[in-house]
Amino acid sequence: MMPEDLERMPWLEPPKEIFEFQAGVPATFYATDFKIGRMTIQPKWPGAPPEKVVATVRLFIPERFKPTFPHYWDITPSRLVTQLSALLVGGTWRGFGIEILRDIPGPKAHFAIRLVAIPP
Q1: pLDDT tens digit string along 57-103?
Q2: Which of 9, 74, 96, 120 is deepest in the core (most CB within 10 A)?
Q3: Are 31 and 110 in contact (CB under 8 A)?
Q4: Rounded to an integer, what distance in angstroms lies between the CA atom of residue 13 and that of residue 53?
Q5: Residues in contact with 92: Cβ distance below 8 Å, sequence separation at least 6, in sequence order
Q6: First CA to last CA distance, the chain
Q7: Measured between alpha carbons, how far is 61 from 71 in angstroms, rounded to an integer?
C-alpha cells in the first residue's frame, strides 16, 4: 500500500474497537461484512510515535459472536491489513470464519490466515 492510497481512504467512524492480537494465540472472526478505511491510532511498541494514521480493516461481527457494542473489530497491523484486504475483496471468505494467528509481539509480526467452518 502506497502513502497516497492511505490519503484516499475514507475515515472510519468512531468508536474504535481495535483487536489486540496475542502472539501464538489464534483469533477467529465470523464476519458478515467489512469496510476498509483509515484511523488514527496510538501505537504501544517502544519507540513508536504518539499517533499514527493507519489503514484499517473493520470486520462486522454478528451479535451472537460479539455480544458487546460495537459489533465490529478494527484490524490495524499493516502487514495483516494488506493480507486481509486481498482476501476480503476477493470474496472467498464468505460463508467461513477467518482465523488469524500472529507469530511474535511487536511491529515486526507476521500473520497466518486460514478459513474455518462457522459453528452451527
Answers
A1: 999 999 999 999 999 999 999 999 999 999 999 999 999 999 999 99
A2: 74
A3: no
A4: 14
A5: 115
A6: 37
A7: 5
Give residue for cell 468512531.
14
- Residue 84 Cα distances to 21, 72, 89, 91, angstroms: 14, 15, 9, 11
Cell representation of residue 4: 497516497
Here the cell at position 75 is 484490524
The stretches of 29-111 forming alpha helices (DSSP H) are 78-90
Q: Considering the entire predicted model, what is its pTM?
A: 0.93
Containing domain of residue 81, as a range?
3-116
Which three cell numbers mark 81? 491489513
